[in-house]
Amino acid sequence: MKISIITPIYNEEGNIKQLFDEIAIALIGYDYEIIGVNDGSSDNSDKILNNLAKTSPNIKAIHMAGNFGQTAAISCGIEHSTGDIIILIDSDLENDPSDIIKILKKMEEGYGVVSGWRKNRWGNQMITRKIPSFIANRLISRIAGLKLNDYGCTLKAYKKDIIAGVPLYGEMHRFIPAYAASRGVKVGEVEVNFRPRKSGKSNYGMWRIFKVILDLIVVKFLNKYIARPMHFFGGVGFIIFFLGVLSGVVSVALKISGIRDFVSTPLPIFTALLVMVGVQLIAMGVVAEMIMRTYFESRGKKPYQIKEKINL
Fold first, then answer.
1. Are residues 51 and 68 in the same domain?
2. Is the model's pTM score more than 0.85?
3. Which of 71-75, 190-194, 272-276 has the highest mean pLDDT?
4. Distance CA 155, CA 117 (A)
5. Are residues 165 and 37 in the same domain?
6. Whether residue 306 sits in one domain with residue 273
């Protein structure tokens, strides 16, 4: 059994060597390869990655032609992997490579996907971090249809035949377990260590949260409504209709009570308009996502371009 470790890299010059060294120590006795995908870094990550690739045939280097995002880098690594099991790990050293063995042992229990759970990630930050994280993961679990405690943990393992055919766009790499579970794959979760970043700065910002939410909507659509679009759009239409009726009831109540006349306040119409426009934009986003997927897949195009490959 061969293991492919894939790590997307973006401006991680201070972390790459230690990460690769720790992975090599953790996987002593295993047949493995490490694929570092440089996603258009502007620091010396490319040079460090090249030097590491020259020291061992187990280390593969891929340099993207620009910054295409974490999901595109992961997709690129998967397509160039040769292992039977694919393991994803962040390059910022927040994931502990020694946990790879724990994940592999869980895979031996018959799981097709195993996800890491950074249980003690936020320490005593109960109000500002733990509770919001708990709520977010419960919400995502509810919508995605698979309960996981830590959807945001990059450290995950997949059987190659499960992940190979999954099209990845946007921020969808984090939802692969839900996608796999919807197709009958057994998904497990293990507690893993979390280490605070020591070098470089985080590439995660508030904007990524909104992108994750939008991608979650698309995943839900793909898992449940792809063959029944009328159920999806009809459901949205019903919600809009219900809101319209509710707005009308409130307007009538205000009229009967003598508080406001129908034309004395634009609030009911304004609220209904905002809700309808928002829902329509989300629906349009889903349709655009499907068009984009059809375009890429029908033409065999990739959401990235490669500039250079070493040991591949």
1. yes
2. no
3. 190-194
4. 9
5. yes
6. no
What pLDDT sits at residue 227? 45
Task: Note the pLDDT tens digit of each residue in 241-272.
Answer: 777 777 777 777 777 887 777 667 666 776 77
SS (H, E, C) 25-37: HHCCCCEEEEEEE
Between strands 85-88 and 59-64, the pairing is unpaired
* Residue 292 one-letter amino acid: M
Same domain, 272 and 200: no
* Selection from 221, 236, 238, 237 nearest residue 287 by Cα: 221
- Residue 268, domain extent: 229-299
Highest mean pLDDT (candidates 54-68, 219-233, 234-248): 54-68
* Neighbouring-strand partners of residue 231: none
Contact criterion met (CB below 8 Å) for 153 and 87? no
- Helix residue ranges, H only, the chain: 16-26, 45-55, 70-79, 99-107, 131-144, 160-163, 176-181, 206-224, 229-257, 267-299
Q: Which two tokens stand for residue 278?
A: 């928002």
Got the DSSP string for 90-126?
-SSS-B-TTHHHHHHHHHTTT-SEEEEE-TTTTTT-I
CATH number for the domain spanning 163: value is 3.90.550.10
**């508030």: which residue's tokens?**
206
